[in-house]
Amino acid sequence: MAATFASRCSRVGRSLFGGLSNSSPGLFTTSHEMTCSNYFSQQQRTFIQMRTVLKVVDNSGAKKVMCIHALKGKKGARLGDMIKASVKEAHPNGKVKKGSTVFAVVVRAAMPKGRCDGSEVKFDDNAVVLVDKQGQPIGTRVFGPVPHELRQKKHVKILTLAGHIA
């Protein structure tokens, strides 16, 4: 683990054992620390944007969808935003078929979202619940945790179907 981390940091073009840098913000920050911090800043999570594959966490029949368009915002969708998606994998006897275009609400996102009390909510995966044009869920069950930020976005029906609210 340490060897691969060191090799990744050295690939950027700086020495791992370099001295103090004049342009560094801190007094004791080495070029190694700056290079590794730049590497980790590049690995940050991003918005749900076009061509992002998401997991479906309801019983509508779809397994995976691909985002076609984020309906609000220029950059992409975050927790509670609606997207337009194409179904990539589906159960054979489900309500939704493979290849169909559906609307969905993002219920879990890997990008951190700050809360008003100072904490952050962040999930391991990107997940959606399929809805119709009015915003009513297609499925009758929602699996896994759902953040309470959906209440502010007027998706109360999804919260009532969820088993666990985070």
TrEMBL record:
Coiled coil: none annotated. It comes from the Eukaryota. The keyword rRNA-binding applies. GO terms for molecular function: large ribosomal subunit rRNA binding; structural constituent of ribosome. Keywords: Ribonucleoprotein, Ribosomal protein, RNA-binding, rRNA-binding. GO terms for biological process: translation. InterPro entries: Ribosomal_uL14, Ribosomal_uL14_bac-type, Ribosomal_uL14_CS, Ribosomal_uL14_sf. The keyword Ribonucleoprotein applies. GO terms for cellular component: mitochondrial large ribosomal subunit. SUPFAM superfamilies: Ribosomal protein L14 (SSF50193). Gene3D superfamilies: Ribosomal protein L14. Belongs to the universal ribosomal protein uL14 family. This is 50S ribosomal protein L14. It comes from Pisum sativum (Garden pea).
